[in-house]
Design goal:
Strand content: 5-15%
Order of helices and strands: HEEEEEHHHHHHHHHHHHH
Number of strands: 5
Number of helices: 14
Length: 464
């Protein structure tokens, strides 16, 4: 079973992937293109922001479409495959340039206007203490602004801070404050501008699909990426050199066939080992199941360790059979210890149980309101008389008490059915006959249950 932690991680990953894909709803020209540099020097282009969740990186990759309406494929690659220092430098540059092109000047203008309004309020406020508090709050906002805005216009903000500092010094002097604080301004790290990424060409998209397929750990995801590559080749193949298009198609087809062949080999392995484990567990052969469990890593190594998720599921399935075998072994050992008690009980109640079994046709007739004949009814009443009391005097093992109570109940129902039928015959009373029918039905039902329970007790336990 999956742990709650694993379940939570899957939910987080699914939510992040949904957010990544939903970014395509905005206009393509407004998107931020980011490069993910791999440790081998290659790079992948992310449509919008990527997300790092534990040891995975999730992003949207363009697979066909146009610059205005690209088709996106959400992908996941291992975080260890990413050159993080280089990727983060590029991301900082891209975010800075994107901010500068879109909102930077507008935000900086609003900041200027806000500072001017604050300084004007400081000049007009006669309460010097309040004016000082306003100025200090404005300074704190200014100090934080570059870090919160990608370091944009950082030097200009420093100049504004210097102006505000002069105002603060004057206010402190006017208020008679002789002490002063030295507050250093923490600058945002400098941004090295790099060339912005753009929508990859069809050939680059194909190369990225194959590269991500190599990095992807789940076989189903690899096949989906390769199938996307084939679909993209069908769409843009005419724009590629014929030799390249043929080679890429063969490569995708070959890899898909290989993945499916590997799936088939692992499916056969899983079916064979689970069957062996299930058969051994049904016989309570714990050692045999343990040997099947020990074979899993060896068989996985023989197949090249290509399907970790399937091996994990196989291991869990065989482990479940091992747990079942151990439990069945305990049940059978318990049964062996108590077997003599079960057979002794069967001998002690066997004659009376047989008496009820022989009475079944007559009880069935009572249930159907179809007899039996009066002489048979009288004979049956004599045979059943006092049987419940005799059964109550039988010494019964504790784990057989439920079965024994059912047997006593069946006998009492049979006695009541016969007595009620006799009274119904005497008075020709249909209502009493129906009462007899209900008691007979109860007797037959409990008798069947007793027979089944005793058969179960006398046989070695089995897996459900």
């Amino acid at each position: 079973m999956r742990s709650p932690h694993m379940m939570t991680k899957r939910v987080v990953v699914a939510a992040v992937m949904a957010l990544v894909v939903s970014s395509a709803a905005g206009a393509a020209q407004d998107v931020l293109w980011l490069r993910l540099f791999l440790t081998d020097g290659a790079s992948l282009v992310s449509y919008g922001e990527y997300a790092r969740v534990d040891d995975r990186v999730i992003f949207s990759m363009v697979v066909g479409g146009t610059a205005d309406q690209p088709r996106l494929h959400p992908v996941t690659v291992p975080a260890r495959a990413i050159d993080w220092p280089r990727t983060e430098r590029h991301a900082a540059s891209a975010r800075y340039q994107r901010y500068a092109q879109t909102r930077g000047e507008g935000d900086f203008l609003r900041l200027n206007n806000d500072v001017a309004a604050v300084l004007n309020e400081v000049l007009l406020t006669r309460d010097r203490a309040r004016a000082l508090a306003i100025a200090e709050q404005a300074r704190a906002t200014l100090v934080d602004w570059p870090r919160e805005h990608y370091g944009y216009r950082q030097k200009d903000v420093q100049e504004i801070v210097a102006v505000v500092d002069e105002a603060i010094s004057g206010l402190r002097a006017a208020a008679g404050v002789t002490s002063f604080d030295v507050t250093l301004v923490a600058l945002a790290p400098p941004v090295e501008l790099e060339r912005l990424a753009a929508m990859p060409s069809p050939r680059d998209q194909l190369d990225q699909l194959f590269r991500v397929a190599e990095l992807t750990e789940r076989a189903a995801d690899r096949v989906a990426l390769l199938e996307s590559a084939l679909a993209l080749l069908s769409e843009v193949g005419a724009s590629l050199p014929a030799v390249d298009a043929v080679a890429l198609r063969r490569r995708a087809d070959s890899q898909i066939r290989e993945e499916r062949a590997i799936d088939a080999r692992y499916d056969q392995l899983a079916q064979r080992l689970v069957t062996q484990a299930t058969q051994a567990a049904a016989r309570a052969r714990v050692g045999d199941v343990e040997r099947v469990l020990a074979r899993i890593p060896r068989e996985d190594a023989r197949l090249g360790r290509r399907r970790p998720e399937m091996v994990l599921a196989l291991h869990a399935s065989v482990q479940g059979q091992l747990d079942a075998a151990r439990h069945l072994r305990l049940l059978r050992d318990q049964w062996t210890l108590r077997r003599s008690l079960y057979f002794e009980y069967q001998r002690s109640v066997g004659s009376q149980l047989l008496q009820l079994v022989k009475s079944e046709p007559l009880l069935e007739a009572i249930r159907r309101l179809d007899g039996p004949a009066p002489d048979a009814l009288v004979s049956l009443r004599a045979r059943l008389a006092g049987g419940a009391e005799r059964l109550e005097r039988v010494r019964t093992p504790a784990d057989l008490q439920v079965v024994h109570d059912l047997l006593i109940g069946a006998w009492r129902f049979a006695e009541n059915a016969v007595s009620a039928r006799y009274r119904a015959v005497q008075a020709a009373d249909v209502t009493t006959a129906w009462e007899a029918s209900s008691s007979a039905a109860g007797a037959l039902l409990l008798l069947a249950r007793v027979q089944q329970e005793i058969r179960t007790l006398l046989e070695p336990p089995r897996l459900p």
